[in-house]
TrEMBL record:
Catalytic activity, EC: 5.4.4.2
A GO molecular-function annotation: isochorismate synthase activity
Taxon lineage: Bacteria, Bacillati, Bacillota, Bacilli, Bacillales
Keyword Magnesium in annotation: yes
Keywords annotated in UniProt: Isomerase, Magnesium, Menaquinone biosynthesis, Metal-binding
Catalysed reaction, written as an equation: chorismate = isochorismate
Cofactor needs: Mg(2+)
Residues the record marks as active site: 220, 269
Sequence similarity: Belongs to the isochorismate synthase family.
Segments forming domain Chorismate-utilising enzyme C-terminal: 200-452
Annotated residues for binding of Mg(2+): 313, 448
NCBIfam families, per database record: isochor_syn
Stated name of the protein: Isochorismate synthase MenF
Organism: Metabacillus rhizolycopersici
């Protein structure tokens, strides 16, 4: 029996097919429906049975907005080494005509692209990151969105000029009644051995950077290091994402499945959010550990708010982001002084910057202009990137790059992919860096990276709650 909704789908598909054949261009049909509450992690895990491939997980602080994608209805990717890598994705995405089947409008549902960019497309790829393009975006086949406590299911189909009506209808029918029934494994312990990579080289790099900064070659450069872990059992990505959600409620949680690898993290750093013409970025730089209790936490936070070295580190980021905003926004506002952004393991200096996008400035053009901010690159930008290439004893891949989503009306949000790791089988590579300024001391910067590694270490099951 055909329901009214199926009729709507049928009509839309017929129109889309006609259009695709006439224009010889594929058309996206996206069916959105409110559904009963679903656990986003169960949904993510159920992708395994559906074997649709590339999944993603995204949730904003306090899980206000969660999006989980399964399958690859469309993949847009490139290995351009210039700003072309942003423009190419944006242009291809704009080219597709998109038909939405929905009785309501809700940002974060319907056809969206989820993906990201590498940190430095000019750097030759490494073995670890060989499977990652310089830019890769996926429009999922199925997507669960949870917003303000309501759940929505989006089913997407890319309709090509060669498609048949029946197969298109089947595509929607097979998912309409889908009920994910995947049971998450109960938590198994996972022993691991950790290998610190090139620690002494990293410390030397910090020493060299500090002296270059003192010689006025550059103002700030961010240097990162990498730790490799090997576990006794296969790492379960759902457990990692679940633990990050529980332990890092003030961060964005992201997960991106790419072949056999998962790039996962819990970042407190938003690069840019755009909703209609409202644009928001957050400057995050300057760090101190969290306290064992509220009193110590507050005392450490107060210390950070007064600390010259950290205030300089932070102000360089604020200055650059405000200058960038002036180029594409009107009414740019930001508070005079930073406040604190607290996470379980670390607290940061934090300054939000807001503005109203001027006509013609797209989310991707802002991502391109902002990346990397001096929170991940340094200042001046080009010199800092060169310093990183010269001094850093690792390959960043997607660590520190922009990761996030974009919809069909240029709404979306990108974060900076830090506090992250690349997982494959029983192995993980974790990354952490720090802003180096003239007053930096290698030993305390090293300790700062240790704190920044904690969220992922803990989510992987390898850290008790002791603070150091
Ligand atoms: C580079 C990282 O973090 C960045 C560096 C910070 C700092 O040096 O104080 C703080 C927040 C982030 O912008 C990281 O976590 O790997
Ligand atoms: Mg720092």
């Amino acid at each position: 029996m055909i329901t009214t909704l199926d009729e709507t789908i049928r009509e839309n598909i017929e129109h889309a097919l006609e259009e695709a054949k006439q224009t010889n261009q594929s058309v996206i049909v996206s069916r959105i429906k409110e559904v009963d509450a679903l656990d986003p992690l169960h949904f993510f895990a159920s992708g395994e049975e559906l074997s649709l491939g590339e999944r993603f997980f995204w949730s904003t602080p306090k899980a206000d907005f969660t999006m989980v994608g399964i399958g690859k209805e469309l993949i847009l990717e490139n290995n351009q080494h210039t700003s072309e890598r942003f423009q190419q994705i944006e242009n291809e995405w704009k080219r597709f005509n998109k038909k939405l089947i929905s009785t309501f409008k809700q940002v974060g549902t319907g056809p969206i692209l989820f993906g990201g960019f590498s940190f430095d497309p000019m750097k030759e790829n490494s073995e670890l990151w060989a499977g990652f393009s310089e830019a890769k975006f996926v429009m999922p086949t199925l997507m669960l969105t949870i917003i303000n406590g309501k759940s929505y299911m989006t089913i997407n189909k890319l309709i090509t000029p060669f498609d048949q009506l029946d197969t298109c209808l089947q595509h929607f029918e097979q998912f309409v009644e889908m009920k994910p029934n995947y049971q998450l494994d109960c938590e198994k312990g996972n022993e691991f051995a950790s290998i610190e990579l090139k620690t002494s080289e990293w410390i030397e790099a910090v020493e060299k950077a500090t002296s270059d900064i003192r010689a006025k070659e550059i103002d700030k450069v961010v240097l990162a290091r990498e730790v490799r872990l090997e576990f006794s059992n296969t790492i379960n990505p759902y457990q990692v994402v679940g633990r990050l959600q529980r332990e890092q409620p003030t961060s964005f949680i992201f997960g991106f499945e790419n072949g056999r690898q998962y790039f996962i993290g819990a970042t407190p750093e938003r690069l840019v959010k755009k909703e209609e013409n409202h644009v928001l970025s957050t400057c995050l730089a300057g760090s101190i550990k969290s306290g064992k209790d509220n009193d110590e936490d507050q005392q450490l936070g107060d210390q950070l708010l007064q600390d010259d070295k950290n205030l300089i580190e932070h102000s360089i980021v604020v200055k650059m982001i405000k200058e960038a905003f002036d180029q594409f926004c009107d009414e740019v506002v930001s508070p005079m002084d930073p406040t604190l952004l607290k996470t379980k393991n670390i607290q940061h200096l934090y300054t939000p910057v807001k503005g109203l996008a001027r006509e013609g400035h797209t989310l991707f053009s802002m991502v391109e202009r902002l990346h990397p901010t001096p929170a991940l690159g340094g200042f001046p930008k080009e010199k800092a990137i060169e310093k990183i290439r010269e001094l850093e004893p690792m390959h960043r891949g997607w660590y520190g790059g922009p990761i996030g989503w974009l919809d069909h009306e240029d709404n979306g949000e990108f974060v900076v992919a830090i506090r992250s790791g690349l997982i494959e089988g029983n192995k993980a590579a974790l990354f952490a860096g720090c802003g180096i300024v003239a007053e930096s001391e290698p030993e305390s910067e090293y300790l700062e990276t240790k704190i920044k590694l904690k969220p992922m270490l803990s989510a992987l099951g390898g850290l008790n709650n002791e603070q150091n």
